[in-house]
Amino acid sequence: MATWQGKSRGTVLGYRIFFWTLRTFGVKGAYLLLRFVTFYYFLFAGKAVRAQMQYFEQVHGWKGFKARRAAYKNLVQFGQTLIDKAVVMSGAIEVPFDIIRDGEEHIAHALDAGKGLLLISAHVGNWEVAGHMLNKFDTPVNLVMMDAEREQLKKYLENVMAQRALNIIPIGDDLSHLVAIKQAFDRKEIVALHGDRFVEGQRTHTTEFFGKPAQFPLGPFILAEKMRVPVLYVFCMKRDALTYHFYAHTTETAQTAAEYAALFNRLLEQKVRAYPHQWYNYYDFWALKEANNDGNHAGR
User: How many Cβ atoms are within 10 Å of 100's Cβ, its own excluded?
Assistant: First the structure.
């Protein structure tokens, strides 16, 4: 049964390649080269391609050649997000993107409350472009990520990133990340994490997602309930080659972890319907595991 293993595609090697490509060919040149790289990957990354075809078949009803073509387009757009991440992180390349902003005022309002801010997103669109927007608020950002991804990626990014107030909080077995998150909120900072992936051993909740039961991590929504800080759900979706659409959604109607989770799932489904090729979970998302599953009672 395929599940996420705590490591993402496109980490150190991917960033290294795309930084070099950008410096050599520019953004549009990198996009062109990407077409050839993606085609090679499409031919030989069988598990990822099959997972995406399954997603297009189950969620969007696309089968056969249409599903394969959609899977290829998905890989192209994923590669473009890596290029775009390199642009916004390096500081050495002029950022060429136009960003349509919906709900940005919610971020300013939340920070004015002086309690810190929790941002929850998903592996859709491009979080790093959304993170680039946060620079204007002059508030440190703490990115919570799996420990399996952190060390090599952090070391490499420290060498190439522009100077910015970004701190990586690793999720460890000793729960020290919870202390670091609480300390960040005490300093009235921003904490950002994803709410759509989990690894074995973490608490989950099961809910209907595109008409089939799927498991989501419960931790982010327990955090939203317990920390008593403003919580926003944010997504940054690619509209065309050089345009993004940023969305920030309030969670004022949610009080319990179950309510936070339900709202997140509903908004995520809306975004995936609107941007079907920007779903970047390359495994069987609907494969259920029994361990630590709290069923549909996410607030328990």
Answer: 12
How far is the C-alpha of 222 from the C-alpha of 200, rounded, in Å? Answer: 18
CB atoms within 10 A of CB 88: 21
pLDDT in tens, 154-190: 565 555 555 555 788 888 777 889 999 999 999 999 9
Give residue-wise pLDDT tens across range 214-270. Answer: 999 999 999 999 999 999 999 999 999 899 999 999 999 899 999 999 999 999 999
> What's the token pair of residue 190?
């921003």
Q: How far is CA 21 from the centre of its chain?
A: 23
Q: What are phi and psi of 217, to 5 degrees?
A: -65, 145
Burial 234-261 (b: 16+ CB within 10 A, else e): bbbbbeeeeebbbbbbebeebeebbbbb
Residue 219 tokens, joined: 């931790």
Q: Is the dihedral of CA 154, 39, 238, 277 positive or negative?
A: negative
Helix (H), strand (E), coil (C) string for the chain:
CCCCCCCCCCCHHHHHHHHHHHHHHHHHHHHHHHHHHHHHHHHHCHHHHHHHHHHHHHHHCCCHHHHHHHHHHHHHHHHHHHHHHHHHHHCCCCCCCEEEEECHHHHHHHHHCCCCEEEEECCECCHHHHHHHHHHHCCCEEEEEEHHHHHHHHHHHHHHCCCCCEEEEEECCCCHHHHHHHHHHHCCCEEEEECCCCCCCCCEEEEEECCEEEEEECHHHHHHHHCCCCEEEEEEEEEECCEEEEEEEECCCCCCHHHHHHHHHHHHHHHHHHCHHHECCCCCCCCCCCCCECCCCCCC
Q: What is the CA radius of gyration of the chain?
A: 19
Question: What is the rounded distance in angstroms from the CA atom of residue 21 to the CA atom of residue 91?
Answer: 15
Residue range 57-70, pLDDT digits in tens: 999 999 999 999 99
Q: Do β-strands 243-250 and 231-240 pair in parallel, antiparallel, or remain unpaired?
A: antiparallel
